[in-house]
UniProtKB/TrEMBL annotation:
The keyword Transmembrane helix applies. It is a multi-pass membrane protein. It holds the Pfam family Prominin. The keyword Transmembrane applies. Keywords: Glycoprotein, Membrane, Signal, Transmembrane, Transmembrane helix. InterPro entries: Prominin. This is Prominin-like protein. The chain crosses the membrane at residues 107-135, 156-177, 450-472, 493-522, 824-846. Residues 1-31 form the signal peptide. The lineage of its organism: Eukaryota, Metazoa, Spiralia, Lophotrochozoa, Platyhelminthes. It comes from the Eukaryota. GO terms for cellular component: membrane. It is found in: Membrane. Belongs to the prominin family.
Length: 890
């Protein structure tokens, strides 16, 4: 045996031992009897597998979306509440079956794949082993020569099989950990025992709910304060609704909006006209001082530079062209007449100070009108909230009454009793100490040891297959070729180990898949169809679905014990979960809108609503006495008439510019250079004058200064043009608003007069009082009373404690127990998914490991044919003699 192979043997001897130790570490259920421990001892173990559990839940959400589960719940509710639907289902069972199958399509597909696995894997194993046993090729057969590339294939297959086995080992380890966590959750000796946590959490919720009504009943002063505080906000809201209804009924809003639009047009036009007038001097300053100065600097520089005034390197023709153009160039253009034209047109329409003149007067008039309309609500509130008014009477009635919300406290007590009864029933059905030996816990404890051993056995079978694979890989990697005198650690033994692992996999994989399928269907269905709704993973839609189920159940079996239109799940598991406002949760759980009807505050509030309507109807004239719906539109009509005589087309035409710094644009502000050739020649001279640095800098400075002056002047021209265009548009809109005949303003005033008369009519006021104030006051008082009752309960009942207790009762079975349960089949499922590929690689390695002779290139068939020793003797030259040709004839 070579020395290298002898050195490898000690390593191969301790590798299996190390592998066995490492495999025993993941689960203490295999190597040691589990010891009772505290709850925090399993916390690191739970955190380590938390990402895996989250992936499992995401996988379940993927194969069974929330909307499909909600559809199944809705179908179940229809069948549950209406037995006639069952007959329809039977009459069209094909459609019903197809719809339900599509709702569970993910489960159906995975179940079919699992059944195919159960059928195909044993058949494939029978075929493989029958062929191998009949052909005598099972295991390591000696003296078989390797083919070309066998070593590379052996390394590739071995590496791939190692990676897959490692992934499968992770799945098996996760299965062991999940099994241990599930066993811990179901261990009665541990403080996190599922049944104990569920009953304890329900007991805390029942105790908190039971104490809340008595606390609220004893805190009557706070209840009266909360109830009385409802009145004035409700009255204010009803007064605003009355005002809005009256304004909408009278039709005053449309003409007022038109008047506001006209007022804005006048204000904008006056501002634009003042800006237009203020910017003419700035434009003239740019022309006379800045632009004219730049042209003078260019003339001076052209006289004193270079040869004959032309810079060195510049084209003399450009210099001559620039000299000729500068002689006649001066600032100016068609816009010189624009100030006079624009000012003459605007003087009759928008004289100086229009922005703060007529528009301001119209604004004040419109503001007074709007203030009078807004004051309708304050007037109505003032009529009601007086010393002898109905508001003070309702508040006094509330403050003089004890036990205001007794039905609410009784309903809360009833809810607490129901939760307590659920807690008692659950405790009686779960805990054997209650005297019922046939409890669920008793039954579970009877089968728990066998259940745990069955799960351990399943994972151990998978682990045994992996151990054989790892041992085969270790022997194949570290062992020698299977010679006749080879020792135990050789690749022939590796082939036998791999064949043993594959045979065990072929025999047991179908059984493991069957068990995993059953666990998957049970645990997955409980998670997707129930627990993800309770834990909030399905979102608000899941809570609404559970509320629908609860309502259907109570309507059928307990119509008198629980409000059917409440929202207990959405309230207690969703809205009450944060520390914030708990009123929506309590209002939904107790159905407070129905409970407050008929209570003493409700009767007082109904009297308040009736008396308020009567009082407002008796004082209709005083409600609208302060209205001013006739704003002064004289200035608007005058300016609209003046706008019709204004023509801004000539002013706008003289301000037309090219809009950018080009040769054509420069001609807009400089006379004597219509085609821009002079400015272009100036740029060429500046670019060519590079021989003298000082001269080049001087020409560049002139060009930059002239360009900046041109850009600034053209920008001012563009701004003036924009202002003139905006003034023209405002003039057009103003004329359209008041009409081309100038009578639009009068018609607007007439419409406001009609609205003023309509808003003061008795029938309009009565309708607004009844529909606006009366109805909305009733709704506002009822909603305020519900909010006050919920606030009173939330002040004495810690909804966060109730929510946490109920969520703890949900988390105990759905997270502490169900997540490890699902994690077990998910871990073994990962093992089974990778197993077919591992079988292929292992069989490939078996064929490679049983070869005993290495591949030698010298003994290939082409080399045999080329070797001259195998040719006839008469073709072989002897003693240096010439080779005799081979005879081919007869």
């Amino acid at each position: 045996m070579p020395s290298k192979q002898k050195a490898i043997l000690p390593t191969a001897s301790w590798l299996p031992c190390l592998l066995g130790i490492l495999l025993c570490l993941p689960s203490n259920s295999l190597c040691a009897k589990p010891m009772p421990s505290k709850e925090d001892s399993a916390a690191p173990l739970k955190k380590s597998v938390e990402p895996f559990y989250q992936l499992t839940e995401q996988f379940l959400d993927f194969i069974q979306p929330v909307d499909k589960s909600i559809g199944l719940l809705e179908d179940g509710i229809r069948v549950f509440t209406n037995h006639s639907v069952i007959a329809e289902y039977y009459s069209d069972w094909q459609t019903t079956t197809r719809r339900h199958t599509m709702s569970m399509l993910g489960y159906a597909i995975l179940t079919c794949l699992g059944l195919l696995f159960i059928i195909i894997v044993p058949l494939a194993g029978c075929c493989v082993f029958c062929c191998r046993c009949c052909c005598g090729k099972c295991g390591g057969r000696l003296h078989h020569m390797e083919r070309k590339g066998a070593r590379c294939r052996r390394n590739c297959y071995g590496t791939s099989l190692t990676v897959l086995c490692t992934v499968m080992l992770c799945g098996v380890v996760l299965a062991f950990i999940s099994n241990q966590l599930f066993r811990n959750a179901m261990d009665p000796k541990r403080p996190d025992y599922v049944f104990l946590q569920a009953t304890k959490s329900l007991g805390l919720a029942a105790a908190e709910l039971s104490a809340a009504p008595d606390r609220a009943r004893n805190d009557s002063g706070r209840v009266r304060t909360l109830t009385a505080a409802v009145v004035r906000p409700a009255v204010a809201g009803a007064a605003r609704k009355f005002r809005d209804h009256l304004i909408a009924r009278s039709g005053v809003r449309a003409p007022l909006d038109e008047a506001e639009a006209a007022n804005r047009l006048l204000a904008d036009s006056g501002r634009l006209a003042d800006e237009l007038r203020r910017n003419w001097p700035a434009l003239r300053d740019d022309l006379d001082r800045h632009l004219n100065g730049s042209l003078n600097d260019a003339r001076q520089l052209l006289r004193g530079g270079g040869v004959g005034g032309c810079p060195i390197g510049a084209d003399p023709n450009d210099c001559q062209l620039l000299r000729d153009r500068l002689a006649v160039m001066k600032p100016g253009g068609d816009f010189d007449a624009a100030p006079a034209q624009c000012n003459s047109q605007l003087s009759s329409w928008l004289p100086v100070g229009t922005e703060s003149g007529s528009a301001s007067r119209l604004s004040r008039s419109l503001s007074e009108t709007e203030a009078s309309l807004a004051g309708l609500a304050d007037t109505a509130i003032g009529q009601l909230d007086t010393a002898d008014g109905p508001v003070e009477e309702a508040i006094a009635a509330v403050n003089s009454t004890d036990q205001l919300l007794e039905p609410v406290w009784k309903a809360a007590e009833g809810l607490a009793v129901r939760v307590s009864s659920v807690h008692s029933d659950l405790a009686a059905g779960l805990v054997p100490d209650s005297g019922r030996t046939r409890s669920l816990e008793y039954l579970f404890l009877q089968v728990a040891p066998y259940w745990h051993l069955a799960l351990v056995l399943m994972a151990s079978l998978a682990l045994t297959i992996l151990v054989l694979y790892y041992l085969g890989l270790a022997f194949g990697c570290c062992g020698e070729a299977p010679y006749d005198d080879a020792r135990c650690c050789n690749r022939g033994a590796a082939a036998y180990l791999l064949m043993a692992g594959s045979g065990l996999a072929f025999m047991l994989a179908w059984l493991l898949m069957l068990a995993v399928m059953l666990l998957f269907l049970a645990g997955g269905a409980v998670d997707t169809e129930l627990c993800r709704f309770l834990t909030g993973r399905a979102g608000p839609a899941g809570y609404r679905a559970l509320d629908t189920v609860a309502s259907a159940y109570t309507r059928r079996y307990q119509p008198d014990q629980m409000r059917e239109n409440g929202a207990p799940f959405q309230a207690l598991l969703g809205d009450c979960r944060p520390v914030g406002d708990v009123r929506p949760g309590l209002a939904g759980a107790l159905n407070l809108p129905e409970l407050v009807n008929g209570t003493k505050p409700d009767r007082a509030f109904r009297r308040l609503s009736t008396r308020s309507v009567q009082l407002l109807n008796s004082r209709r004239d005083s409600l609208v006495g302060g209205l001013r719906l006739r704003p002064n539109l004289t200035e608007l009509i005058r300016q609209a008439g003046a706008a019709r005589t204004v023509d801004l087309s000539a002013c706008a035409g003289s301000l037309t510019t090219s809009g950018s710094l080009t040769a054509a644009a420069s001609a807009d502000v400089i006379r004597g250079d219509p085609d821009g050739a002079g400015i272009a020649a100036l740029h060429r001279i500046s670019a060519a004058a590079v021989a003298d640095l000082a001269e080049h800098q001087a020409w560049s400075r002139i060009v930059d200064q002239l360009d900046a002056d041109l850009i600034r002047t053209l920008g001012r021209l563009s701004d003036q043009r924009r202002r003139v265009q905006q003034l023209s548009d405002a003039r057009t809109r103003l004329i359209d608003l008041v009409g081309p005949d100038g009578r639009g303003g009068s018609r607007l005033a007439d419409r406001l007069g009609v609205a003023d008369s309509s808003i003061r009519r008795s029938d309009a006021l009565s309708e607004a009082i009844d529909a606006g104030a009366g109805a909305n006051l009733t709704v506002g008082l009822s909603a305020g009373l519900v909010d006050a009752a919920a606030a009173a309960l939330s002040g004495v009942a810690d909804c966060r404690k109730i929510s946490d207790a109920l969520n703890g009762a949900v988390r105990a079975p759905c997270q502490s127990a169900l997540r490890p349960f699902n994690g077990f089949w998910a871990g073994l499922g990962l093992f089974l998914v990778c197993l077919p590929t591992c079988l292929v690689f292992s069989l490939k390695l078996v064929n490679l490991y049983r070869k005993s002779s290495k591949y030698e290139r010298d003994f290939e068939e082409p080399d045999y044919m080329a070797y001259q020793g195998f040719c006839p003797s008469d073709t072989v030259p002897l003693d240096g003699r010439r080779k005799v040709p081979r005879r081919t004839g007869v």
